[in-house]
């Protein structure tokens, strides 16, 4: 868990993305980029990283937090 916390807190956009999905539930990649005010390609890279760490899952272009992702997001938001 500490490793995941370090991974997420090491990048502000990772933190923002987890917080966004925590508050909205699920969003398409393009909406995530728009809400975060970053380029779609940047959002795609972060989404790929978070998916690889099993913090989020993608189904038909829609992303949402996993149970682990929810735990990490809530922990990061409480810091």
TrEMBL record:
Output the superkingdom of the source species.
Archaea
InterPro entries recorded = WH-like_DNA-bd_sf (IPR036388), WH_DNA-bd_sf (IPR036390)
Q: Which Gene3D superfamilies match?
A: Winged helix-like DNA-binding domain superfamily/Winged helix DNA-binding domain (1.10.10.10)
Q: What is this protein called?
A: Transcriptional regulator
The species this protein belongs to is: Methanococcoides alaskense
| Organism ancestry | Archaea, Methanobacteriati, Methanobacteriota, Stenosarchaea group, Methanomicrobia
């Amino acid at each position: 868990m500490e490793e995941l916390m370090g991974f997420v807190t090491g990048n502000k956009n990772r933190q923002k993305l987890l917080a966004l999905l925590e508050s909205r539930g699920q969003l398409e990649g393009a909406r995530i980029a728009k809400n975060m005010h970053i380029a779609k390609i940047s959002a795609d890279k972060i989404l790929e990283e978070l998916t690889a760490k099993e913090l989020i899952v993608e189904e038909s272009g829609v992303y949402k937090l996993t149970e682990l992702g929810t735990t990490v997001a809530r922990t990061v938001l409480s810091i």
